[in-house]
Design a protein that fits this description.
By secondary structure, the protein is of the alpha/beta class. It has one domain: P-loop containing nucleotide triphosphate hydrolases (Rossmann fold). It contains 8 helices and 5 strands; from the N terminus they run βαβαααβαβααβα. A 5-stranded parallel beta sheet has the order 2-3-1-4-5. The protein binds shikimate-3-phosphate (S3P). The site of shikimate-3-phosphate has 10 residues, from loops.
Length: 168
């Protein structure tokens, strides 16, 4: 059975939706961020702070490789995993890829009270979100489906994804 792969910017709901989908479809849920934190024994913020982003991206590549080799799982990939072409290829090999999208303002509202995302711990997060969205749009476009989550409930988006899954 194919994996369901969720990509998209931070705060677009990959983990929440992934867990919901996994429960409904009785599939295991896997998050590349969780795999990295477990393997490294520290949080993503700590990894970025002490070892730097490149170290994190290398760990992410390994986590993606491991997750992509599984079958019949729901995978939430970290928001920047798509920056590496190899990650996209691996995730798509055995998976249907959905990109969750939301407006910059929505992303800001959803992420502003959480401090575990080092890339957004800056003086002007809205500008940073817009810059990163612009830099990454061509990578996010590589998913099989684009799902706009703006103004939608978890249930609505979950059912939208299930509807698409029935057609593939
Ligand atoms: C990142 C997204 C984060 C996490 C790390 C870097 C990114 O995951 O992997 O902070 O570059 O967009 P989420 O998208 O699950 O927040």
């Amino acid at each position: 059975m194919k994996n369901i792969v969720l990509i998209g910017f931070m705060g677009t709901g990959k983990s929440v939706l992934g867990k919901r989908l996994a429960k409904l479809l009785k599939m295991p849920f896997i998050s590349t961020d969780d795999i990295i934190e477990q393997k490294e024994g520290r949080t993503i913020s700590e990894i970025f702070g002490s070892l730097g982003e490149q170290y994190f991206r290398d760990a992410e590549k390994e986590a993606v490789k491991g997750a992509s080799a599984m079958e019949g799982v729901v995978i939430a990939a970290g928001g920047g995993a798509v920056l590496n072409e190899e990650n996209i290829t691996n995730l798509k090999k055995n998976g249907v890829m959905f990109c969750l999208t939301a407006s910059a303002q929505d992303i800001y509202e959803r992420t502003k009270n959480y401090k575990h995302r080092p890339l957004l711990n800056v003086a002007d997060p809205v500008t940073r979100i817009k810059e990163l969205l612009a830099e990454r749009s061509m990578f996010y476009a590589k998913a099989n489906f684009q799902i706009d989550t703006t103004g939608k409930s978890v249930e609505e988006v979950t059912h939208e994804i299930i509807k698409w899954l029935k057609k593939v």
